[in-house]
Amino acid sequence: MFDFDIELARRYGAFTSYQSDASPSAIEYYGENPAAEMDRLLDHYAEASSTVLEIGCGAGQTLCQLAPKVKQIWGLDSSEELLSATRLRGERLGITNARYLLGAANDPDVAKSLPDATFDLVLSRRGPKFSENLLRTLRKEAILIQEIVSNLDGYPLGEIFGRRYLTPFSTSDQEVLLSEYANLGLFPVSCKEYFYEEFFRDREHLAAFLTQVSVMLSPWLLPRSLPHKPYDPVQDQGALDLYARYNTTEKGLRLLRQRKIFVLRRAEIVSSPVKL
């Protein structure tokens, strides 16, 4: 960690891949670690000739890890503070092939700042989804690697705290996402799902985690028209007590986590009239 990481780790913790006092005391992956799978996929698809775009680059850990392996890499993030940390990290590590862009992936004006038909590889590590506005920036056979925090993440935490947002669809979030991407000409290569458990020492430890990683109870990917209610230590005290009562184990206070990782490829949609 650099000096500027210390305050960011305290404030953001796991939300931006930092370890902090609020991080889980133990994690049980049961054989497969989604973070390790993301690293493996990036190593596989990132080549020396690749131009890469990271959507939601956060504090730049992944961007700076990939930069020495590729031709050029762009980092896009909507947080000026985190993007500044990415830029500073790159400077400290002597990275010269990185470019940085402030803004949201779904903002058409931001997308205009990116070059056409440039990116061989796009990744999003628990960050925003790929946007239609970015489609013109892809090369013909580009690869998209998307890690999402899926709809069972934290279950039943959201139920007990009254923050469970039920989808209006009868299908899973995976089917909805793949359908959206198929309409953009992005088709799946692989889809993997991971369940694992994090453990906290006691309810105070979990409360510190929920305070730091507010997206656990107030998902940031939801439209801002919906009510966002991060953890409140006063109003949520009863809910936290109830959750601890039912989820305390010998290993600690358990929290179920879920991740899904998709690899998609860009392909032309060939359609022709059917001869009758």
TrEMBL record:
<dbReference type="Pfam" id="PF13649">
    <property type="entry name" value="Methyltransf_25"/>
</dbReference>
<feature type="domain" description="Methyltransferase">
    <location>
        <begin position="52"/>
        <end position="126"/>
    </location>
</feature>
<dbReference type="InterPro" id="IPR029063">
    <property type="entry name" value="SAM-dependent_MTases_sf"/>
</dbReference>
<dbReference type="GO" id="GO:0008168">
    <property type="term" value="F:methyltransferase activity"/>
</dbReference>
<protein>
    <recommendedName>
        <fullName>Methyltransferase domain-containing protein</fullName>
    </recommendedName>
</protein>
<dbReference type="InterPro" id="IPR050508">
    <property type="entry name" value="Methyltransf_Superfamily"/>
</dbReference>
<dbReference type="InterPro" id="IPR041698">
    <property type="entry name" value="Methyltransf_25"/>
</dbReference>
